[in-house]
Amino acid sequence: MNAQHAAIAATAPRSLFSWRKHWASRFGTAPFLPMSRSEMDALGWDSCDIILVTGDAYIDHPSFGMALIGRLLEAQGFRVGIISQPDWRSAAAFRALGRPNLFFGVTAGNMDSMVNRYTADRKPRSDDAYTPNGEANQRPDRALVVYAQRCREAFAGSNVVIGSIEASLRRIAHYDYWSDKVRRSVLPDSKADLLLFGNAERAVVELAHRLAAGERIGDIRDLRGSAFMVPRGWLPGEGWSEIDSTSVDTPGVLIRHADPYAMTAAAADGAACADGAGKAAAGAAAAGGQVVQVVQFHLQSYMRMPKLARAQTAIRLPSYEQVAADPVLYAHASRVFHLESNPGNARALVQAHGERDVWLNPPPIPLTTAEMDGVFAAPFQRRPHPSYGEAKIPAFEMIRFSVNIMRGCFGGCTFCSITEHEGRIIQSRSEQSILREIEEIRDRTPGFTGIISDLGGPTANMYRLACKDRQIESSCRRLSCVFPGICENLDTDHTPLLQLYRKARALPGVKKVLISSGLRYDLAVRDPEYVRELVRHHVGGYLKIAPEHTEEGPLAHMMKPGMSSYEQFRQMFEKFSKEAGKEQYLIPYFIAAHPGTTDADMLNLALWLKRNNFRLDQVQTFLPTPMALATAMYHSRRNPLHKVGHASGSVETARGARQRRLHKAFLRYHDPDNWPLLREALRQMGRADLIGNGRKQLVPYAQPPGSGLRRVTPVAAPLTQRGRGGRPGGHAAAK
Q: Is residue 718 pLDDT above 90, yes or no?
């Protein structure tokens, strides 16, 4: 076991495509991964080696997780079936393909099921983009847990492995916004044998081959990017150490040290422990037993921790019971969790749930460019399964003509879930791989008119960006490469991306390549040539970017750059648009009610919007997703970007429905339906001067007939007027 876990620290993992193919590779490649017994029969299969259960419709396209993993496992020689959006009310639908030879792989889909089903106001959504015809209510709440339990019910004794973003975000105890409480890890609730988090290609391929070779799933404890349940206090083997990080603000016991110059026994007695340990030792000695001295260290801030081998060290987080009862400990656990996210130096984590522990191995090693190319080179049909007929699946329609060129994001925005799932290290495909996919879209996708709708990923312009030094990268513990400013070790050269853009739009049959992914404008301004090229060739009249806010307080809690970066980018955008003879516009996105945001902050943002003549149609209210740093701020009212304790200053948090609606109303100050609410709020804030018809005033006196009919109740006084206990901390940030 020790030797197994030593492999976790390896910097050069086994190549993804170096495994000997499973014997079932003789069956060849399936046109679509089968979703029925009749399809299995047509392929000559008597059984599936692996069955993937998903909350999404099955679209055989690399942008959809079940297809990507399914085709990867197929390339390894395994027979893979898919159960898509099963009726979860009984186990019958989970028996459709029979018992899998190796395991059920269970995913909620491309989104967390609760985010998919509910708005930021906790109201059910009216549609589901991952379902045929956008039909809602085709998956259960907390789908991962429900599906895993049904798999277990359908075939007792089968191996059940859970994964996807829902598993990544819920792998330890987490605050659940929809129930407004801290919930357990999904592992004990789902009864799964194993949880794979993050980019799971390496783990799932190795798992499949080792199970096929006869290993028991309960003995596989060394996969990076995996989590599992173990007995309380379990360690992988001898030589392991555990760092206790279960408490904050806990002073050590005052130890009265013996006088080294004392010559009498009485003088030495003063060193005896107050808890009776001395008496116990004396009693043991009198009984003729061996005396074992147990020493508990209370390390002070000025004392160094003993140097421990990171590959054989686990950090014990506060237990589920502790974080559920104490929000401060929740914030502390969140901070420790995120500090252990770099695959180059992350340690194992362990968290008690009752009498058992959830054990988390370090995150997976990112894929190389060659491995990324291999994953995306699978024979995808690039369309929905034929069983859906002519039904439109909105998520597919949105990405049908787009290409994913990279994974990951080193921005570290506190409200975003990309980091918890894909990590901070950018994984990029090669030019050849990307260009080949564009040609496939051109040649194989019905309805293609010559326009690539997006060439991007989680962030449009992080392609091939990385730390200048691999050793520095592997040892870095920063939560962001661009917070509070761009790291001097970060390579910000956009030349590889520029070359890709030029080659993409030069392909025969390609008329235009648009960039629709989120743009990191503080990086873009470092390379004016990139901005020029983007503006001249890759903007379709409008470019969406996300400053998220104008005020320093909220931006610091978001880890986003100040408005100076936005202004610099705006000036470049307008200059290059004019040079190109094009009339183009920036569309900024903002977040309402983010932790660290006061009513006054939202007012100032509204005034900025009016000064700049922005009237936003779509606005976003902060939605606390599991495990995000901003969610920890929301729940605990503490800032885990800094060391936290019970005496730490509080974070402004808009929690009540009324205040959250007010913050959203400030973003849509121009909507007459919001004017009664805004007038009342402005009076409460002492800013009645902003009510009127002047150019610098926010809300008019008069109310148009038929508008603003919702009853207006008194607005609570702003937090700044209620003696809030602290001031937002942190520095102005980054995106």
A: no
SS3 448: coil
CA distance 713 to 610: 26
- End residue of a domain, out of 553, 573, 592: 592
Name residues whose C-beta falls within 8 Å of residue 344's C-beta, 6 or more positions apart in sequence: 11, 473, 474, 475, 476
Closest alpha carbon to 349 in 185, 188, 204: 185
Among candidate residues 465, 482, 471, the one with its CA nearest the CA of residue 522: 482
Residue with the two structure tokens 């007939």 = 705
Structure tokens at 128: 């589901």
User: Per DSSP, what are the bridge partners of residue 231?
Assistant: 356
Beta-bridge mates of residue 314 = 242, 348
Q: How far apart are CA 163 and CA 65, in angstroms?
A: 10
What is the SS3 assignment for 717? coil
DSSP-H helix ranges across 260-417: 265-268, 277-286, 320-325, 327-339, 369-376, 394-399
Q: pLDDT-based confidence at 299, cuts 50/70/90?
A: very low
Tens of pLDDT, residues 396-443: 999 999 999 999 999 999 999 888 889 999 999 999 999 999 999 999
Cα–Cα distance between 684 and 687 in angstroms, integer? 8
Contact 601, 554 (CB under 8 A): yes
Q: Which residues contact 201 (CB under 8 A, 6 or more apart)?
A: 16, 69, 72, 364, 367, 371, 375
Q: Provide the residue range defining the domain that includes 506.
A: 401-592
Residue 485 has pLDDT above 50, yes or no: yes
Mean pLDDT (the chain) is 89
Residues 99 and 162 in one domain: yes
Residue 466 within a domain: yes
Helix (H), strand (E) counts: the chain: 26, 23
Does residue 209 lie within any of the structural domains? yes
Task: Please indicate, yes or no, whether residues 53 and 183 belong to a single structural domain of this protein.
Answer: yes
347 and 466 share one domain: no
On whether the CB atoms of residues 230 and 357 are closer than 8 A, the answer is: yes
- 171 Cβ contact partners less than 8 Å away, ≥ 6 residues apart: 185, 186, 187, 195, 197, 227, 358, 360, 627
| CA dihedral sign, ordered 562, 568, 571, 573 | negative
482 shares a domain with 348: no
CATH of the domain at 521: 3.80.30
Q: CA-CA distance, 22 to 209, in Å (whole number)?
A: 7
Phi-psi region of 701 (alpha: psi -120 to 50; beta: other; left: phi over 0): alpha
Side-chain half-sphere exposure of 89, counting CA atoms within 13 A = 3
Over the stretch 60-71, which tens digit does the pLDDT of each residue have?
999 999 999 999
Q: How far apart are CA 626 and CA 167, in angstroms?
A: 10
For residues 37 and 46, give the distance between their C-alpha atoms in angstroms, rounded to a whole number: 9
The answer to whether residues 237 and 319 touch, using CB atoms and an 8 Å cutoff, is no
Band of the pLDDT at 725, cuts 50, 70, 90?
very low
pLDDT for position 618: 81
In contact, 473 and 425? CB cutoff 8 Å = yes
Q: Strand 59-60 vs strand 383-384: parallel, antiparallel, or unpaired?
A: antiparallel
Tokens of 332: 């502390």
Q: How many residues does the chain have?
A: 735
Count the neighbouring beta carbons within 10 Å of the beta carbon of residue 116. Answer: 23
Domain count, the chain: 2
